[in-house]
Design goal:
Largest sheet of chain B: 2 strands, antiparallel
Largest interface: A-B, 36 and 32 residues
Strand content of chain A: under 5%
Strand content of chain B: 5-15%
Shape of chain A: globular
Largest sheet of chain A: none
Order of helices and strands of chain A: HHHHHHHH
Helix content of chain B: 55-70%
Radius of gyration of chain B: 20 Å
Helix content of chain A: over 70%
Shape of chain B: elongated
Number of strands of chain B: 4
Strand order of the largest sheet of chain B: 1-2
Distance between the termini of chain B: 20 Å
Number of helices of chain A: 8
Oligomer: heterodimer
Number of domains of chain B: 1
Amino acid sequence: MEIAYPVGLVVVAAAIIIGFTALVREKDDLQRILLVDLAEVLGLVLIALVATDLAEALILPGLVVGISELLAVSEVYIAREGLKEPTGPAFRLEVMESAPGILALILVAHGIILSGFTGGAIAAVGAVFYFMCRGHNEQFELIETVSGYAWAIWIAAFLIFMFLPQYWFFGVMMAGGAILVKVMAKMSLVGTMRRGGPDV
Amino acid sequence: MFNLPTPHIGGPELFVLEFGDIVAYFSPYTALLFAFAVLFTVLVIVSRPERQVDIAFGGDAYYTKEVDPDLLRFQRFMAIACGLATLGAMVTGDVFNFTLFASMIGITNIGIVAAYRNRHVLNAAFQYGIVAMLATVPLFGGAAIILSSTGTLSMWELFGGAVAVPLIAKAFLVLGVMGEGMAPFYIAKAEITRAQGAPFILMVHVSSLLLFLRVMEIVISM
């Protein structure tokens, strides 16, 4: 820690100098948005260098702020350039016709084995990929209902931790499974955004 | 239990609100700033947008400008959100929360300025957005350096004489707030071109002014 922190600070300072120099030299506005997003990561790196549990908790709000500012600036850019959504399918790739089934299956299976938040994210990537490639015509109410039940199970698991701590293993399993389903259900909605149905 | 260690800047604390280890407080100084922010937030909530008229040169003719109600509604929402973020930045007793509120003010300022469909104004909003995003690096960096060098983010600890906050962290904090509170310089474009939305644009100036006053108190007290 005593060595690593100053060394990390020096590296971050060098990276900040490089990033800001690039920003000064870059004239294209779209590229500048991307460069600014890269530079923003350095702020998170500075927090991460502290390397305590508190720093871990502080990274998430920092990340959220960065993403929301990026979204706001991108919206301004779109409005300023007068960009419109492309009509019709944006692009067609052979792999998007053939791969989704097997890839989604592998990712979802691997996610279920991992379980918990990480497993949910991995399984969700599979679901997102599937929905992006194959389109979607399922009922969103179903996904939302499943997600709601998963949330209730997650809360119930916490109640087990609090009131019946001797059944902690049961609680861990419930929480792991429920957070898996919940993260996956929420994230798979992202995959339905591209094909642009009437409800998106 | 709570005793603000530097009464010569903010005065003694008047009211303390505990959220776990994050303790929000009012001193006479921040209470004044808070009241100012409340006043302007209420003004934004109750006021009606101005209706503008353009005079045609060389004659008696004039034409009224169309104001899109959707854009105005968005702008008012952003102005109210900006007021709430300012209120939070005034009362918080935690350095990291202060930086979060400061960047929230930055985001809502982008929203207020971006609600125009004027290319010049959108250009200014874009440039401000870039600056506000860059400012989060020194802002969070300053908070992180404070945390790593003192081990705490609570202003109650930092304001005491026992902990020494490095100068670079203070400089980073001020630099970050300068970036987030830069909006009035960019708003000039909207005001010169007389874009609509007169009462809401006021919030940009108010939030920037209060943010600077508050960060001065924090940096001097540390």
